[in-house]
Amino acid sequence: MTPIEKHNEILAGKIIKGLEKRNMAGYYCPTKEDALKKALELIPKGSTISWGGSESIKEIGLCSAVKSGDYTVYDRADAATPEENTECLRKAFYCNYYLGSSNAITYGGELVNIDGNGNRVSAYIFGPDNVILIVGLNKAVPTLEEAVSRVRNTASPKNTLRLGLDTPCANNGFCGNCLNGTICCQTVITRFSRVKDRIKIILVGESLGY
Known about the structure:
- By secondary structure, this protein is an alpha/beta fold.
- It has a single domain, classed as 3-Layer(aba) Sandwich (Rossmann fold).
- Helix content is 40%, strand content 21%.
- It has helices at residues 3-21, 32-42, 55-59, 62-67, 82-91, 119-125, 144-163, 168-172, and strands at residues 25-29, 48-51, 72-74, 97-100, 104-106, 111-115, 130-136, 140-141, 186-190, 199-204.
- The strands form two sheets. A six-stranded parallel sheet has the order 1-10-7-4-2-3. The chain has a four-stranded mixed sheet with strand order 8-5-6-9, sandwiched between helices.
- The protein is globular, with a radius of gyration of 17 Å.
- The model has no long low-confidence stretch (mean pLDDT 95).
């Protein structure tokens, strides 16, 4: 085991202890391949599944795996009309499993997410029976303040570039606290899960997403 691998294991262990104190389940997988295997182990065949915007779940191959598996999947990317898109978003709240990532996670196990439409963060909070989040250790920071800063100044600027938006952060590389075309409409801090182990975090020892 290299020093980096050992450090990742130690850090993941600390975060998992923090998650457990907050009524959330944590797992550590050194690679994307391990993370995909663990995620599929957690989802029973026949489950209904949906997800919000997340590059991390795509990068480990989770979206394509469940779409080709024995599951019922609601993917808004398959919607042919705006009405079908809206219906798909609503069906997500009744799913057995909702997939995604977290924009940031603290060493103590707090999750920080910023959203535009709010469908992603609202599903994290309430609705689906289970939430599985794939989180690369590149998103781990020591404190809540650093987590919020990471989301505003690292994750959001990169996501605006991905979406082709003309915002201050897309042009300058850091948050401009804008109110025009912003994707930072809702900021949600998850510090505790009222339903034990409803939220399951798979930490990955690789850089994933933004």
